[in-house]
Amino acid sequence: TITNGILYPMESESRQVKDLSGRWRFRTDNSSGRDTGFQERWWERRLAETGHVIDMPVPASYNDITQDKSIRDFVGWAWYETTFFAPNAWNNEVTNVWLRVGSAHYYAMVWLNGEQVMEHEGGHLPFECDVTMSLNFGATNRLTIAVNNTLTPNTLPPGEINHYNGKDDYPAGYFTQFKQPPYAFNQEYEFDFFNYAGIHRPVKLYTTPRLRIGEIVTSSDVTADHASATVHYQVTVTDSSRVGQEMASYNITVVLEDSTGAIVNKTSGGSGSITVTQPMLWWPVGMHDQVGYLYTMVVYAGRLGLSAPITTDVYRLKIGIRTVTVDQTLKINGRPFYVIGVGKHEDWDVRGKGFDWSMVVKDFNLLDWLGANAFRTSHYPYAEEIMQMCDERGIVVIDECPAVGMRSANNFVNKTLSHHLNVIGELVTRDRNHPSVIMWSVANEPSSQLPPAAQYFKTVLDRARELDPTRPATFVCNAGYDSDLATPYVDVVCVNKYEGWYDDPGHVEVIQKRLSYFLTQWHEKRSKPVIHMEWGAGAIAGFHSDPSLMYTEEYLCDVMREHFATFDSLRTGSNPVLAGEMIWNFADFATAQATTRAYGNRKGIFTRQRQPKSPAFVIRDRYRALRNQS
Ligand code: GCB
After folding, report:
1. In this predicted model, what pLDDT tens digit does every residue of 336-391 receive, in sequence order?
2. How many angstroms separate the Cα of 448 from the Cα of each of 152, 416, 478?
3. N or C: which terminus of the chain has fewer CB atoms within 10 Å of its end residue's CB?
4. Ligand 1 mean position, distance from CA 192 (Å)
5. What distance in Å separates the CA atoms of residue 248 and residue 241, rounded to the nearest whole number?
6. How confident is the model at residue 176 (pLDDT cuts 50, 70, 90)?
7. Is there a cis peptide before residue 154, judged by omega within 30 degrees of 0?
8. What HEC string does 277-343 produce?
């Protein structure tokens, strides 16, 4: 199946990219119905003409940028605006201009020069459209984007707005500060990270010839002896003619280059395969000397036999040649792969979930320092630039949908399901060419013991495998092995369990027996490889005690040692129970305010500022040793 493409905007001899990131103008709509912007049609004028505007960086979450609590906690429509120049050189018969939003959280509407050009539901994933006809060439253009972070039982992630009426015992003004008398309202959700909002990833314009490469889908087969590989591809071309000409006939040429740019092989046609003898396989860090080897697939699509000027679209896609299989264990290129990783978040000081190269590169350097070979994009798709770095650095990814906090039966309904299937489609379309992605995770910790969850998850897992038959699919389970109803449909059992923390808090001495029993039960019941996807303990940097107590750094070190001893007893042998371990979490992160969270979740082995707590050194010793053995 090929859905509409969403190729990452790359420059080439036929494409230009213009990044609109920077300082935009901004306002939250605080009116009681949160709808003044729509009534007054704010997109039709400069935002400053419709009221007070403030500076807002893009990309960034807006929540932590100002000193205003009402912006930190805002729920509703937030309005963004920028102006930019569209060069006259783009105004010709052969060029199309596309507007692409890397992600906006969660519901977004986009107007260009007062005309609505896009609407998109769901954060964490890109959306784009052809804006050629809406642009003022050789002049300034006004781009207005409204984003709404309201969660409902049918959004992903789900949540709800609760209204409170308590005028008698709350101070005067408390309810009216929310501008919605007599109610106060609160956004509530059952996932454990702060619901940051805004334009989280870059907004870009890019040009293509009007006959453009819309989508490229690749996969590869490798012979058992690794002596030969076949790269399969499918290319779709779209022709959005600006002058109403007939659909062009076109030809497609595909050239495979090695990492030095030397041509390996080439072919032509919209789909086919390319043979590579003695391929340089893509290997994760630690498995082979050759880490993260990438070929470049250069695709040319050109018009044939028309009187219009001939331009050829060129797109360079980095690909890796590797296979992923699951039998008794997880295998990459036919060899067992043991996951040593971390759960992560896109979460940083000040910018929230806003993409920032400094933070991203720092995190990759820390993953390398640690010796990790994998992470999960808990609990939503991460920026495309992060996925590209995983490909290059040989970091394996379990790529997760934003379906987290599905804890009630009214989440498992058709309305949510159809959105969930769309999101899987968008995620697979965006990420299927990344060799680093070895598995899809369709959700985290749903209440999979509820009867409707069985059919629900069978449907979404089947959709993931139908869209991408080359990768296993799973969801991350925290229902009990006796009560869960959905893991029969996964390829790898992924479980979360906090021994010594949520279970038997304060008792590290029971961890080995209980954890070993728990993981073995899962393995026996499902006869599938098991990854222990989340485990850990809160540790506040600078809290110390001996004997260790909960929330000290020493306690997390003790919890780790007990887990490591258990993992080592379960990961070896011909039919090992365990295919991997991922500690929760890479770094401390922001959450909703709660009595169980001390200024955020403190299970990070690094602080939120990316400095190591002492447990980081303990895990580093293990991960580096394991990485060097594999
Ligand atoms: C979990 C969730 C994760 C939380 C973590 C915790 O099971 O999957 O999102 O942050 O537990 O620390 O409670």
Report:
1. 999 999 999 999 999 999 999 999 999 999 999 999 999 999 999 999 999 999 99
2. 20, 15, 8
3. N
4. 6
5. 9
6. low
7. no
8. ECCCCCCCCCCCCCCCCCEEEEEEEEEECCCCCCCEEEEEEEECCCCEEECCCEEECCEECCEEEEE
Q: pLDDT (tens digit, 9 = 90+) per residue, 53-66?
A: 999 999 999 999 99
Which neighbouring-strand residues pair with 316? 298
What is the complex's ipTM, to 2 decimals?
0.99
At position 610, the amino acid (one-letter code) is: R
Say how many Å lie between the CA of residue 536 and the centre of ligand 1. Answer: 9
DSSP assignment letter at 448:
T
| Interval between CA 562 and ligand 1 midpoint (Å) | 20
Q: What is the pLDDT of residues 11-30, one digit of tens each?
A: 999 999 999 999 999 999 98
Ligand 1 neighbour 584 (Cβ under 6 A): yes
Sign of the C-alpha dihedral computed for residues 199, 404, 531 and 491 taken in this order: negative
Determine the Cα–Cα distance for residues 612 and 350; give it in Å rounded to an integer.
Answer: 20
Pocket test for ligand 1, best of 584, 588, 595, 603 (most atoms within 8 A of CB): 584
Which residue's CA is the closest to the ligand 1 atom numbered 7? 496
Residue type, 143: L
444 pocket-lining for ligand 1 (C-beta < 6 Å): yes
Please say whether the beta carbons of 434 and 397 come within 8 A.
Answer: yes
Number of the ligand 1 atom closest to the C-alpha atom of 496: 7
Is 445 touching ligand 1 by the criterion CB < 6 Å?
A: yes
Task: List all residues 6 or more positions away from 257 whose beta carbon is below 8 Å from its beta carbon.
Answer: 263, 264, 295, 296, 297, 298
Any atom of ligand 1 within 6 Å of the Cβ of 347? no
Sheet order of strands, 211-222 included: 211-222, 228-239, 271-277
Interval between CA 409 and ligand 1 midpoint (Å): 20
In a 13 Å sphere around the CA of 430, the CA atoms on its Cβ side amount to 27
Q: Which residues are catalytically annotated?
A: 445
Q: Report angle CA 362, 367, 370 to the nearest 5 degrees.
A: 125
Strands (E), 159-227: 160-164, 184-188, 198-199, 203-209, 211-222
Measure 108 CA to ligand 1 centroid, in angstroms.
28
441 Cβ inside 6 Å of ligand 1: no
How would residue 301 be classed by pLDDT, with cut points 50, 70 and 90? very high
Q: Which residue in this structure is represented by tokens 């993981």?
A: 519
Which residue, judged by its Cα, is nearest atom 4 of ligand 1? 192
Cα–Cα dist 514/499, whole Å: 8
Residue 603 near ligand 1, beta carbon < 6 Å = yes
Angle between the N-to-C axes of helices 553-570 and 511-526, in degrees from 0 to 180, rounded to the nearest 10: 40
Q: How far apart are CA 239 and CA 243, in angstroms?
A: 11
562 pocket-lining for ligand 1 (C-beta < 6 Å): no
Kindly list the distances between the CA atom of residue 395 and the CA atoms of 193, 217, 281, 365, 560, in Å, as whole numbers in the listed order: 24, 21, 14, 12, 22
**Protein residue with its CA nearest to atom 2 in ligand 1:** 192
Integer Cα distance of 491 and 49 in angstroms: 55
Mode of pairing for the β-strands spanning 339-343 and 374-376: parallel
CA angle 447, 449, 450 (to 5 degrees): 80
Instruction: Say whether 141 sits in a helix, a strand or coil.
Output: strand
What's the whole-model pTM score? 0.96
